[in-house]
Structure formats: C-alpha cells, structure tokens
C-alpha cells in the first residue's frame, strides 16, 4: 500500500508537468522516469531498475514519436498503439525477457516482482497521461481536464480488478468480506483524490520554480511523502470507516449516519459545465427504454472486453416525457459515437448538448402533468374488460401502488358459461373485452338465480360474488395504479349518472356540479360584459368584466369602488336589457340572433331576426351582438344557394345546421346544411332580364309588382323565369318572394340612383353662388367632358419603360392614355401626365396640364413665340420687326407694338374660346395713362410680361415672349395706328375676332373709342390715342362689375 | 418487461425474480433490519430509466442520489411509499416518487 502511495505522487507530478509544459510531452515522460528512479532504486534491484528505466524511456520515446507522427485524426489510435507497445515492453521485462537488449534477472525476488508490476502499471498510467496530454496539445477542442486524466488513470488502475470484485460480491453476499474489499478499493480511490488535491495545491509553487528540474521533483516528492505518510495512517482508518458507512448496504445505522453526515441538499449539487456533460441523442420513438438497457449491457460488455481502456460513459437515461430521445452522460462527444456505433434505432449524428440549467428539470422525479390521486377522484381503467370504464377511487393503498376502485360491474351472471351437459358442471368463461356485458349494477337476485354457488352474502348491502366484492351494487376492486389512467378524465353525464343513480343526494349534487362545471366552462365572458353576481358576499351586485380566464373572471363592481374582484364563472350571469341585440352562443338555438324583449330571472326572451318568433334562453348562452346575421354558419339570411344544378333557393332562415329556404317555385322548405351545394355570389352575377316594358332589370334594382299585391322590393337574384325579390315591408318568408319578371316593372336602377346622387352639385345650380364665384377655372375635370384634348396628339413617353418613344394617343380613359408607338406596332397605356405633347411637326413639348390649359393646342414648331410684341429696340425708333401688313412709322411716339408673326395679324387669344382662356388678361393692370406705363398682362400664365401700352414716347410691349394664342385672330385686318401722326382709324377686332368688331380705335382726331362695352374692374380713364390731343376714352369706367378677361364681358358683339 | 420493479429506497431496477431471489443489492440490509420483505419496498411503477455505468463519477448519479450504489439500472421516479418501518429508521429518507421538492 505504501509503495503505491509512493508512486502515485510521481504520476501526479508528471500529469502536472505534462499539462504545464504542453510543448514538452516527451520531456515530461523523461522527467517522470527521473522522478521515479529514486524510489525504485530503494526497492528494486539494479537490473530491474535499469530495465525499467530503459523500458520507460523507450516507451516514452515511442509515445512522443507516436504523438508527433500521428495526425490529428489518428491520434488516439496512435497513442493506443504506443501504449500497448509500452505495456508490452514492460511486461516483457517483467517476464524476464530481453527485448531491450538488457540482461539480468528481473525477478530476483518476489518483492521485486511485485514492485516491477506496480511500477509497470504506474508507468503505463503515466504514459497514458502523457499521451492524453499530447492529444490535448494536438487537438485543443477536447474538453479534457485533470479529472479526465485522473479518471483515465483510475480506469487503468482500478477498474479491472474492481470489476471482478464486484461481480464476486454480487454473487456471494458475504458482508464482512465485502466491506473490507470495498475498503481497499475506496481507499485507493480516496487516496488518489487526496493526492490530487495535494498536488493541485502545490501546482502554484511548481509554477514558480519550474526550471528547478530534478531538484524540484525531489522536493515535491518529499513533501508529498510527508503529507501522505501523515495522512495515510489516520486518514486511511477514517476513510475506511467513512466508506464502510457510505457503502452501507449493510445496515440502516450506516445509512442513517451517512445520510446525516453526507446529506447534501440538491441545490449544492446543481450542475456546472465541468461536472455534468449530458448529450441528448435522437432515437426511434418508443424504443428508448430498450435502448437504455441495450446500451448499459453494451457498456458492461465493453468494459469487460476492453480491459484497460474503457469508454467514458457515465450514464444513459431516458424520460417518458421526452420521447424519441435518450440522454448520455459522457464528457466527450466522440465517445458517444464510438459507443453507440452498431446499435440500432439510435441516431448519434443527431445529438445536442443539454444546457446545464435544463438538467435539473430533465431529471426531476415528478412530471408536471402528473395528477395526484386522492379518494373520490375519477380514473379510467386501462386494461381488462373494464378498459375505458370510469371508476371512482375509493381507497388508496398504503404504498400508493394500488387503489381500490368503485366500478359499475359488467356481469353476465354465468350466461355465457359453458355447461358440460354430461357432468352438469359449468366451466366459467372469462369475459373478454370484445364481448363484455354492458355495465349494470350488481343484481343479487340474478346472481342467486343464475350462479348461486359463487355468491356469498356478507350483509344486506354487501355481497361477494365470484371472489369480488359488491357493495350497493358497485364492484369494489383493487387495481394497480399503472393500469389506471389518471390524467384528463372527463366523465360523461351518462357515466356519472350510473354512479349516482342509486345513491342519494350526495352523488346527485356532485353530478350536477360536474355538469354545471362542464357547462360553465363553455360559457364565455368577454371583457366589458355586464354581469350579475349570483352568489357569495357580493350577491346581487352588478359589475363589468375586466379580465377573463378559463374559469375565474375578474369583475369590477362600480358601487363598491374597489379594484376588480374575482369570481368563478358559475356565480356570474350576464345582464341584458330589453332592446339589446343578442346572439345565441350556446345551446340548441346557437347561431340565432334577435332583439331582447324581456328579461326575467336570468331568462332572456328575444324575438328572433330570422323566425320572428319569441325565444327564451338563459342569459349566459347569449352574447351581445351588432349584426343580425349569424356568423357561425356558412350561409346567412337572404343568401342565394344552389340546391342542385338547376335549382336555386333563397335562405329565409339560417340556423346552425338547419336552413329554411324559398325555392324558385315559391315553395318553402327546411333543409340541412348538407343539401346545399354552394352559395351563389350575387355580387358577381351579371344576370339581367327585362320587365314587362322591356326595361332591363339587374340584381339590386328596385322593382314593383304590376299585378296583385303590388309588392315592391329589391331584386336578390334572377333565375331564368323567376326573380327573387326581398322587401323590407314584408315579414313573411323574411321578406322574400318570387315573381315572374313579366309581372314587375323596374322602378329604379341601382346605377341610376348612385350616379344621380353623386353628380349633382347644388352650388353650381345656385346663380347667386355662381355669380360670386371667380371666373370658372378650367379644371382638369371639366376638360375631360367631351373629347379629351390628348386624343390624337403626338406624344413622347416620359415614364420608364418606353421613355423617349414617340407615339400617338389613340384612346384616353381616365388618367390613362393608350398610345400607338411610332417605333413599333404596339399600343401601350400610360398615365397621360407622364406624356409630353407635341405638335405634329415636333417642336417644344408640353405637359398634359399645359395642354389642357391651351385648350388642346400644342405649340408650333416655330422658333420663338408666335406673338411677339415690339421689342425694346423698337422704342428707339428702330423698325418694328415683322411685316404685319403695315409698317408703323413711329414718327412721334405712339409707337405701336410690333404686331408680328409670320402669318401676320395674329391677335392674342383673348376670348377665343367660349369660356375664355386661362390667360389672365388683365388683372391689376393699369391701362394707358399719360406717359404712364401700363401693365398688360400681369400674372397670367400665357399673358406674358408686363407691357406698357401707349404713353408718349413710351415703349409699349405687348405681350412679350408669350404664347398668346396662335390661331385666333384679334382683328386680323386691323390697322393699328398706321397713319402715324394723327392716328389712323383702326379697327380693333375684325371679322374673325370675337372681340367686338366695330370698335373704333383712335381716329383722326383721336376720338373717343370705346373698348368693348363692358366695364373694367380696374376702371379708370385711359388715354388712348395720340399725343397731345389724346382724347379720353372710357375704358370700362363703371368699374367693379365685370371681370376683366376670362370668360367675361370683354367685347362680344 | 412488466415484471420489473424498482427499489423505493435506492431506485435500482431489477426483475421481480431478482428481487425475490437476492433482494435489493444496495439496501437489503436495511430491509432485513426493518423486518420487511423486499417486495414491500419495491414498486412496479417507475419512470425514467437510467443506465448507471459509473455511479461514483456521474453527476446524474449524484443528482438522483444513487452515487453510493452499484452500477446498474435505476429509475428516476419510483411510485409508492416505503413501509413505515423502513422510513422510520431513515430520518433523511427522501422519497423517490416526486412528492418531496428540494
């Protein structure tokens, strides 16, 4: 024992070394061998030591070689091989072979032999550790730690022999011998633990003087020796005792002591990532338990066969709650694959690490959905002839494993027994589930008559029949709880009635309560419902539902002014008042709806919307509703449904499953939901027919009967020869009747009504309002009346897709224009605002809005504006541009604007249109004035810039670069002050102009000219004429009455 | 495997025959001391099968407190109650039927 003690620390050290100097795995081995030597020398003969040394060195070298040579994937095998080699070597040595070339008897003494064996074992352990370390260095993802290494070590050291001992122990229950065995083993284990602790505490020191080398080893070793010798004496005793108690399968005293000493509350056992690594592995559902058994067996077999090297599988387990998965406790993932290889029904590729925090839940003994049985609870029997039957728990056995159940017996009193005719003995035939008798209470009379031999009477109510006890007719029989279904038992009323039929009030009340509960569960309260409290302290109060759950409702009682109180559903009743509209949510009339007429004792009487009959229903089966049509059904009132390919009918009463219909022959019948093929969507129907005058009737039109009762109504549906009409004035058949279209006359079309209402604008019909209105702006809407201006125009597409392409507008509908492209023969539809409109010859493009403003005229392709007033150069006496037909002389002022244009005589488009242009002609302009400059135009869009009109020496610009209409002639042949000095008589306007033709403009003496007859808003006198003697002309002197420009009174004939 | 039973004290799962023949491998001493039969202390109703390979090392074993026992099959939950004779002897007995929550 002490020798092992001596050796252990070295192992421990080497482990430490190996881990610390991760790069020097082989070095560690060497160190170890050095460490070992002093010990060995003392006990082993020289030769033996030598052999050992070489063996170890050899092994160490090999191991390091293997560790270096092996690629990552092959490491384990490589290591294994190396280990085997080393073991082999050492054992060879042991067996006095001379593999290493070393001679000398190894087995000089038995002591030496044992020593060698020990050291050999330790060396194996050592090398293993180093292997592991090498491994770890190579693939760092392994989650190995000291524990693993130590375990490994222990595996090698202990498992083999221990296994044997265990088995022996199992076989022979020799307590004494066993305890001692255990003792030894455990001591080993414990000591190793101690050692581990020892070296762990020393690990820090080691770090400090790492370079010390062999000296350090010595020191450590001595310290450990001291510690251990100190500990081993007393601790071994103590530990032995402790362990004997812990492994106390012997007596309760030990168990008790261990429980007291070693009682660890589970919260201290809570797992950490280091202590518990549990993998969930998928497997075939239903086979979990078998797999656990199989794997455990496999593990035991593997342990036996693999000998020294064992797979690190701690445990395998399964839970019924988590089907299709087993759990394996193993520190390494790779082990699982190795372990489960070849086992069917398990899919080790689908595994996942169970999070540490979920482990306690996974191993919780109690399932959350478990029901604790108590007396009086209902269960169902899982097997036997009573399978599926309801039973009441009468008693529960002490150990909780059996329950005495009260069952309604299924007895045939020997009716099916086979009677042997010869001997007249009957052979009892056991009833099977397939041919079991119906449940009936035990009838002693029947038993007495049919099968007297098996009946014993205990007392008046208690019989024993065929070894079963019957009390009050019920069978009392003991069942194991694993044969009982205890969860989610919902007894039906009949079953409950069977239990309650004979006994008195007690069971009846329970039944009624059960039923009530079941009913109450169906009642749905909604937040905001007004409720009456039926029982308890708040009985009689009324409140509002504020929160709902399955059976507890929070109700706010305003009169108490408290926060919401909670009530069970059974103690609440909904409040309705006469006039409420309600829908039936439960019971036979479910789906019906109607108006509440009266409420009495919780019974609500309402008139059904469908049947017009009064129904009385308890309040909790109702809920407030908004619409009258039941929503629960597929078919609603007034739906047109198809009964066959040819027959259609109209629903005149819609229930949940039963419908009353009126067919096309006018016959009323009641049908089930199943006989309805489908619903006809009348919205989509385009069916029309004609009335007796030949006008068209569509669905939705209002018609009136020409004959008979002159009923009036709306067309619901049109069948070839019949039309369904619904009238709101008729109650019979929910207002639906069927007539021949020849007997009705269309009163109003649905479309007409809609269109008429929508289009009338009363404000436009009121002249007063209209007169106050500004001159009607040409809106886009108006422009759409009639032919759209865009039609036929050459356009260029501005939007994506065909951007830049030219085409011709072929059709316009709404905002969309259909364009025939020039480039290819294709019509596209584009938003007309995304088009540029061009003149046929090209030129400047304008938008649609501009086009509308221009009354559909596209700008010409001429360069410059078509109407150009005299440019500024003219004011200095230059020749006016343009060949208007008259060359203005411009001798003394009175420069006239260049009236130009290629065509000559172009006039602005004042009033060219019927409604006047959008050009603001006028506005706040001052017209004329001595020497003043008047602004002609103003802010108008087309009106162009400010023009100074007249005035001595003033330059007048008429228009400017404006597009002032093109084609209209403003007095085409007019001469504008052509005479120069005296001012020629000019005619403003002309034949073509709508602008007051006969106005005299100027004159020889500068007479007064009247410009139009209308009045100008701006009013004011203007001098229009020549210099000096210019006469006053009244330009609309009455003022304020007319709008200047626009569609106003400018001119006119 | 309906003949299997689980020990209510340690949770080990064995067949009924094994229990009758050898008793509970972990707790037979206690049962003998209490003078109760093994059948009284084992239950046919259990759930959560654990194949315990290394009780001394396994965290699962610690958690379900089977770490001092032999390797073998254990149950996580064992229905039933130990006879009063046994439970009286063991003040720290923790029932395995899930009734006691730690």
Automatic annotation (TrEMBL), chain A:
Q: In its keyword annotation, does this UniProt entry include Ribosomal protein?
A: no
What is the scientific name of the source organism? Lachancea meyersii CBS 8951
Give the UniProt record's GO annotations in the biological process aspect. mRNA processing; regulation of DNA-templated transcription elongation; regulation of transcription by RNA polymerase II; transcription elongation by RNA polymerase II
Q: Where is the composition biased (Polar residues)?
A: 85-99
Q: Which compartment or compartments is the protein found in?
A: Nucleus
| GO CC term (a single one) | DSIF complex
Query: What does the UniProt function comment say about this protein?
Result: The SPT4-SPT5 complex mediates both activation and inhibition of transcription elongation, and plays a role in pre-mRNA processing. This complex seems to be important for the stability of the RNA polymerase II elongation machinery on the chromatin template but not for the inherent ability of this machinery to translocate down the gene.
Membership in a protein family: Belongs to the SPT5 family.
For bias type Acidic residues, the affected ranges are 129-159, 175-192
Q: Which UniProt keywords apply?
A: mRNA processing, Nucleus, Transcription
| Compositionally biased region (Low complexity) | 954-979
The NusG-like N-terminal domain covers: 275-366
The record's InterPro entries line, in alphabetical order, gives:
KOW, KOW_Spt5_1, KOW_Spt5_2, KOW_Spt5_3, KOW_Spt5_4, KOW_Spt5_5, KOWx_Spt5, NGN-domain
**What GO MF annotations does this protein's record show?**
mRNA binding
Residue ranges occupied by any Spt5 C-terminal domain in the UniProt entry: 893-1023
State the SMART domains in the record.
Answer: CTD, KOW, NGN
User: Would you tell me the protein name for this molecule?
Assistant: Transcription elongation factor SPT5
What Pfam families does the record tag this protein with?
Answer: KOW1_SPT5 (PF23042), KOW4_SPT5 (PF23291), KOW5_SPT5 (PF23290), KOWx_SPT5 (PF23037), Spt5-NGN (PF03439), Spt5_N (PF11942)
Q: What is its main location?
A: nucleus
Which regions are flagged for Basic and acidic residues bias?
17-30, 40-50, 100-118, 213-224
- Gly residues composition bias: residue spans: 915-953, 999-1017, 1044-1053
Region listing for Disordered, in residue ranges: 1-237, 418-441, 850-870, 915-1053
List, for all copies, the residue spans of the domain called KOW.
372-399, 524-551, 575-602, 696-721, 788-815
From TrEMBL, chain B:
Checking CDD domains in the record gives: Spt4
Whether Amino-acid biosynthesis counts among this entry's keywords is no
User: What superkingdom heads the lineage?
Assistant: Eukaryota
Pfam families cross-referenced by the UniProt entry: Spt4
**Subcellular location per the Swiss-Prot or TrEMBL entry:** Chromosome, Centromere; Nucleus
A molecular function (GO) held by this record is: zinc ion binding
- According to the UniProt entry, the coiled-coil residues are none
| Entry keyword set | Centromere, Chromosome, Metal-binding, mRNA processing, Nucleus, Transcription, Zinc, Zinc-finger
Q: What do the Gene Ontology cellular component annotations say?
A: chromatin; chromosome, centromeric region; DSIF complex
Q: Does the keyword Nucleotide-binding apply?
A: no
Q: Where is the Spt4/RpoE2 zinc finger domain?
A: 4-79
Annotated family = Belongs to the SPT4 family.
Function as written in the Swiss-Prot or TrEMBL entry: The SPT4-SPT5 complex mediates both activation and inhibition of transcription elongation, and plays a role in pre-mRNA processing. This complex seems to be important for the stability of the RNA polymerase II elongation machinery on the chromatin template but not for the inherent ability of this machinery to translocate down the gene.
Q: What is this protein called?
A: Transcription elongation factor SPT4
């Amino acid at each position: 024992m002490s020798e092992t003690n001596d050796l252990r620390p070295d192992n421990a050290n080497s482990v430490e070394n190996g881990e610390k100097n991760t790069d020097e795995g082989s070095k560690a081995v060497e160190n170890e061998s050095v460490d070992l030597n002093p010990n060995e020398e003392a006990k082993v003969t020289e030769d033996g030591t030598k052999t050992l040394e070489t063996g170890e060195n050899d092994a160490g070298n090999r191991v390091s070689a293997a560790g270096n040579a092996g690629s990552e994937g092959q490491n384990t095998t490589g290591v294994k091989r190396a280990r085997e080699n080393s073991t082999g070597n050492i054992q060879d040595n042991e067996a006095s072979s001379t593999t290493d070339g070393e001679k000398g008897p190894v087995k000089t003494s038995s002591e030496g032999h044992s020593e060698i064996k020990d050291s050999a074992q330790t060396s194996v352990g050592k090398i293993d550790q180093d292997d592991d370390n090498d491994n770890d260095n190579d693939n760092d993802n392994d989650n190995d730690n000291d524990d693993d290494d130590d375990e490994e070590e222990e595996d090698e050291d202990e498992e083999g022999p221990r296994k044997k001992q265990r088995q022996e122990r199992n076989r022979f229950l020799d307590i004494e011998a066993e305890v001692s065995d255990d003792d030894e083993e455990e001591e080993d284990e414990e000591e190793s633990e101690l050692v581990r602790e020892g070296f762990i505490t020393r690990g820090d020191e080691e770090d400090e003087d790492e370079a010390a080398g062999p000296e350090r080893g010595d020191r450590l070793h001595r310290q450990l020796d001291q510690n251990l010798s100190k500990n081993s004496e007393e601790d071994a005793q103590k530990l032995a005792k402790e362990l004997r108690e812990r492994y106390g399968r012997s007596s309760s005293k030990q168990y008790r002591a261990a429980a007291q000493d070693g009682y660890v509350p589970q919260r201290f056992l809570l797992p950490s990532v280091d202590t518990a690594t549990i993998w969930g592995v998928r497997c075939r559902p239903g086979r979990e338990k078998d797999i656990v058994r199989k794997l455990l067996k496999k593990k035991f077999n593997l342990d036996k066969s693999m000998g020294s090297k064992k797979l690190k599988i701690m445990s395998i387990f399964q839970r019924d709650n988590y089907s299709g998965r087993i759990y394996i406790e193993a520190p390494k993932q790779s082990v699982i694959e190795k372990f489960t290889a070849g086992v069917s029904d398990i899919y080790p590729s689908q595994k996942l690490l169970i999070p540490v925090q979920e482990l306690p839940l996974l191993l919780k003994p109690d399932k959350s959905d478990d029901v604790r049985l108590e007396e009086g609870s209902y269960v169902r029997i899982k097997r036997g002839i009573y399978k599926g039957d309801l039973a009441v728990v009468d008693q529960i056995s002490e150990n909780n494993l059996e329950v005495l159940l009260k069952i309604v017996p299924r007895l045939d009193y020997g009716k099916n027994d086979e009677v042997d005719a010869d001997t007249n003995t009957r052979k009892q035939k056991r009833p099977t589930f397939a041919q079991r008798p119906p449940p009936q209470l035990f009838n002693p009379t029947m038993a007495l008559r049919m099968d007297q031999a098996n009946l014993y009477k205990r007392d008046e109510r208690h019989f024993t029949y065929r070894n079963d006890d019957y009390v009050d007719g019920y069978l009392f029989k003991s069942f194991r709880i694993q044969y009982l279904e205890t969860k989610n038992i919902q007894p039906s009323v009949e079953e409950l009635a069977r239990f309650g039929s004979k006994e008195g009030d007690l069971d009846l009340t329970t039944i009624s309560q059960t039923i009530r509960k079941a009913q109450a569960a169906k009642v749905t309260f909604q937040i905001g419902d007004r409720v009456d409290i039926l029982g308890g302290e708040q009985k009689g109060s009324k409140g509002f539902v504020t929160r709902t759950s399955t059976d507890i409702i929070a109700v706010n009682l305003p009169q108490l002014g408290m926060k919401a109180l909670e009530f069970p559903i059974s103690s609440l009743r909904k409040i309705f008042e006469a006039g409420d509209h309600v829908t039936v949510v439960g019971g036979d009339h479910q789906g019906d709806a109607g108006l509440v007429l009266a409420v009495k004792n919780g019974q609500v009487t309402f008139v059904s919307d469908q049947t017009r009959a009064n129904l009385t229903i308890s309040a909790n089966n109702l809920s407030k509703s908004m619409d009258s049509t039941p929503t629960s059904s597929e078919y609603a009132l007034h739906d047109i449904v198809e009964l066959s390919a040819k027959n259609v009918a109209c629903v005149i009463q819609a229930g949940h499953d039963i419908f009353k219909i009126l067919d096309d022959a006018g016959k009323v019948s009641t049908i089930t939901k199943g006989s309805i093929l489908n619903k006809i969507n009348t919205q989509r129907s385009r069916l029309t027919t004609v009335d007796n005058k030949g006008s068209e009737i569509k669905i939705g039109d209002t018609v009136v009967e020409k004959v008979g009762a002159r009923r009036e109504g709306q067309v619901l549906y049109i069948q070839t020869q019949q039309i369904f009409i619904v009238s709101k004035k008729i109650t019979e058949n929910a207002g639906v009747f069927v007539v021949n279209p020849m007997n009705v006359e269309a009163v109003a079309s649905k479309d007409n009504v809609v269109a008429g209402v929508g289009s009338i604008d009363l404000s436009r019909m009121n002249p007063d309002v209209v007169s106050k209105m500004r001159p009607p702006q040409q809106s886009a809407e108006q422009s759409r009346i009639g032919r759209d201006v865009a039609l036929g125009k050459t356009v260029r597409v501005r939007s994506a897709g065909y951007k830049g392409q030219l085409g011709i507008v072929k059709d316009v509908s709404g905002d969309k224009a259909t364009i025939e492209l020039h480039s290819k023969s294709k019509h596209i539809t584009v938003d007309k605002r995304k088009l540029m409109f061009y003149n046929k010859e090209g030129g400047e493009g304008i938008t649609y809005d501009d086009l509308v403003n221009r009354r559909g005229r596209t700008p010409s392709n001429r360069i410059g504006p078509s109407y150009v007033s005299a440019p500024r150069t003219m004011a200095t006496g230059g020749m006016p541009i343009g060949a208007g037909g008259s060359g203005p002389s411009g001798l003394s002022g009175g420069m006239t604007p260049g009236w130009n244009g290629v065509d000559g005589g172009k006039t602005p488009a004042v009033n060219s249109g019927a409604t006047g242009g959008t050009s603001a002609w006028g506005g706040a302009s001052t017209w004329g004035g001595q020497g003043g400059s008047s602004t002609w135009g103003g802010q108008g869009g087309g009106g162009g810039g400010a023009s100074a009109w007249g005035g001595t020496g003033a330059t007048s610009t008429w228009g400017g670069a404006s597009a002032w209409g093109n084609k209209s002639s403003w007095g085409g042949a007019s001469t504008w002050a052509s005479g120069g000095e005296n001012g020629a008589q000019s005619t403003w306007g002309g034949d073509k102009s709508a602008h007051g033709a006969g106005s005299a403009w100027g004159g020889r003496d500068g007479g007064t000219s009247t410009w139009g007859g209308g009045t100008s808003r701006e009013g004011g006198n203007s001098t229009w004429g020549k210099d000096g003697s210019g006469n006053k002309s009244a330009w609309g002197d009455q003022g304020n009455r007319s709008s200047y420009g626009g569609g106003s009174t400018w001119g006119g004939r | 495997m309906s003949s299997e039973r689980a020990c209510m004290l340690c949770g080990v799962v064995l067949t009924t025959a094994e229990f009758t023949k050898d008793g509970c491998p972990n707790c037979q001493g206690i049962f003998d001391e209490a003078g109760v039969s093994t059948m009284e202390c084992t239950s046919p109703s259990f759930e959560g099968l654990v194949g315990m390979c290394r009780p001394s090392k396994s965290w699962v074993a610690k958690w379900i407190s089977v770490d001092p026992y032999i390797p073998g099959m254990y149950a996580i939950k064992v229905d039933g109650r130990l006879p009063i004779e046994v439970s009286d002897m063991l003040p720290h007995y923790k029932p395995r039927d899930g009734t006691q929550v730690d």
